[in-house]
Amino acid sequence: MTVPFLDPGAAYVELQDDIDAAVHRVLASGRYLLGPEIEAFESEYAAYCGARHCVAVGSGCDALELALRAMDVGQGHEVLVPAHTFIATWLAVSATGAVPVAVEPDERTYNLDPDRLEDAITPRTRAIIPVHLYGQPADMDAVLAVARRHDLHVLEDAAQAHGARHRGVRVGSGSTATAFSFYPGKNLGAMGDGGAVITGDDAVADRLRLLRNYGSTVKYRHEIKGTNSRLDEVQAAVLRVKLTHLDAWNSRRADVAQRYLTECGDLPGVTMPYVMPWADPVWHLFVVRSARRDRLAQQLDAAGIGTLIHYPTPVHLSPAYAGPRWPAGTFPRAERLSDQVLSLPIGPHLSEEDVTTVIAALRAAAGEQTDDARLHRGLAEDRDVRPPADAGGVGERPSAPA
Fold first, then answer.
1. How far apart are CA 319 and CA 190, in angstroms?
2. Domain stop point among 208, 243, 278
3. Contact, 344 vs 307, CB < 8 A?
4. Which of 27, 195, 287, 372 has its CA 20 to 30 A from that of 386?
5. Which alpha helices (H) appear in 265-321, and where do they start and end?
6. What is the DSSP-derived secondary structure letter of residue 271?
7. How far is CA 390 from CA 383, 385, 393, 397, in A?
8. How far is the C-alpha of 148 from the C-alpha of 249, rounded, in Å?
9. Whether 175 contacts 142, CB under 8 Å
10. Are residues 285 and 185 part of one domain?
11. What are the pLDDT digits (tens) for 154-182?
């Protein structure tokens, strides 16, 4: 690859001295779980997000599940989720015993369409999970307005949106809780799995601390049926180092995104991301759309450009959830997106030369697709031309293109 899709080791190279010192500090301390690094990280990340509480857990999926359980969501309940998202959003709901109910995306932003929420609400609905997909903030004003009318919890899935702002405020304000993932490829990534929940609700925070540690805050006294989901001290120390660089890294991502938007916004057959005027995305992913997505990906791969598809199979059609309730065609918007989306390199450690290379390859590929389309259209038009009246019959026509 000339330009890989992601280089997860680049952050370590940039911050090696600080990260090594943080890791050695933990190793020498003898405290590896629920110690001072966790406490410090929780305090620092809560302050960064503008939240009262941060509770660190073992993964982003755990963050979603435990937050739902802290809200007493469980068996017999329904939770509204986006039809277009990573499967973890749905799996967390299923893990509580509740049922995920899918809602179609807005085709401009690819986030959950708030105008479709009320049609999905039933007497069993207990919560809504809007996902800030690709680092683009969802329309939280509209989602929260629906939730207030129906007395529902809102749990934001911000696994891809560390630092994103909605109307000038970091995501997470106004909802019951917000879940984050610190998977290594995230904007704020650990060197292994990790997650956290921020909340302004004291009761939810207290319950989360019980749930993540076997239902206990005092050793061998278990107040509820909890689980084991604790971010370890090494990961907390690494995240503390990286947190001080998060805004700078997000700014680099925004610079790359702006170049893509400016220099590729006129490409035929390729749709650029749409940003709402009130949104300040953090560009976890830069996702374009093309009706000939697979061909575009092949062309970029041949040019040495790494791409990925987020996500190639809609959750409702995955083997985990496929069935008579949601046959193909149930969510046409989500299915269309899965057939058309393609993610370009967008990491904060891309060089200007890398970005120039991606842009050149994308423009060349779009040009080839335009030429192919013209050729196919020309051949089709040739086949439709009738022979002259004096030709004496049907003339020979070109064979259909392969």
1. 30
2. 243
3. yes
4. 372
5. 293-302
6. B
7. 18, 14, 8, 17
8. 35
9. no
10. no
11. 999 999 999 999 999 999 988 999 999 99
Please indicate, yes or no, whether residues 68 and 55 belong to a single structural domain of this protein: yes
This prediction's pTM: 0.91
Predicted confidence (pLDDT) at residue 4 exceeds the cutoff of 70:
yes
Q: With contact defined as beta carbons under 8 Å apart, do 99 and 78 qualify?
A: yes
Supply 320's token pair: 């985990």
* Residue 338: domain span: 246-381
Tokens of 370: 């335009």
Query: Is 377 in the same domain as 263?
Result: yes
User: Using 50, 70 and 90 to split pLDDT, how confident is the model at 373?
Assistant: low
Alpha-carbon distance values, 342 to 182, 289, 294 (Å):
23, 6, 9
Residue 181, beta-bridge partner list = 195
Check if 242 is active-site.
no
The total number of structural domains that make up the chain: 2
Amino acid, res. 73: V
**Residue 399 half-sphere exposure toward CB, CA atoms < 13 A:** 2
Report whether 41 contacts 87 (CB < 8 A): no
Per-residue pLDDT at 269 exceeds 50: yes
Question: Which residues fall within 8 angstroms of residue 289, CB to CB, at 6 or more apart?
Answer: 270, 271, 337, 340, 341, 342
- pLDDT tens digits, residue range 113-127? 999 999 999 999 999
